[in-house]
Amino acid sequence: MAEEDLRVLAEAEIAAYVKPLSRGFQLLVPEGLRQQALEILPPVQPDTDPDEDIERCPNCESQLHAIGDLDGVLFLAAVVAGGWMAYEGHPGRGVLLFAACALIIRVLARHRSAWQCGNCRARFSAGELDAARESRRRHAAD
Ligand SMILES: [Zn+2]
User: Fold this and answer.
1) Ligand 1 centroid to 119 CA: how many Å?
2) How far apart, in Å, are the Cα atoms of 124 and each of 9, 73, 119, 129?
3) Which end of the chain is more exposed for a tag (fewer CB within 10 A), N or C?
4) Which residues, 6 or more positions from 18, have their beta carbon under 8 angstroms from its beta carbon?
């Protein structure tokens, strides 16, 4: 389906491309050609909104940069600890320990500052960004 859309857009000389996502994929067109693309492809909503994968600063709309990330290290530690428990003859405890660590990582990741604005230097956690995005959506709907 996306290939068909791409062909139609290519014929109209709109440089669209497909970005693979974890669930399916996303058809992207340049912002300036969005309206034109929408007219060509009425049932499809080409997504030109970069908010999906580029986090924007709620203050100044500049691009945010991920701050050095400990999640991977913590996750590895959880795997090693769980594996060690299993190796020691306590696979049940190993799974429990791993699950507990995974939960802690999730909670930490949500509350600590994971993003910093390249412009105004403000820092945001994933939860704060979600809240900002939600309030922006509400404003847009008004
Ligand atoms: Zn900013």
Assistant:
1) 5
2) 38, 21, 13, 6
3) C
4) 2, 6, 25, 26, 27, 28
Distance from residue 113's CA to the centre of ligand 1 (Å): 14
What does the block give as tokens for 74? Answer: 């913590």
| Spatial distance between the Cα atoms of 16 and 3, rounded to a whole number of angstroms | 11
**Cα 56 to ligand 1 centroid, rounded to whole Å:** 8
Element (DSSP H or E) covering residue 80: helix 71-87
From first to last of its 142 residues, the chain has per-residue pLDDT tens of 667 777 887 888 877 777 777 666 677 777 777 777 877 775 554 555 544 567 889 899 888 888 766 667 777 888 888 888 888 888 888 888 888 888 887 787 777 778 889 899 998 888 888 888 888 888 877 6
Where do the domains of the chain lie?
2-50, 64-141
CA angle 91, 96, 102 (to 5 degrees): 125
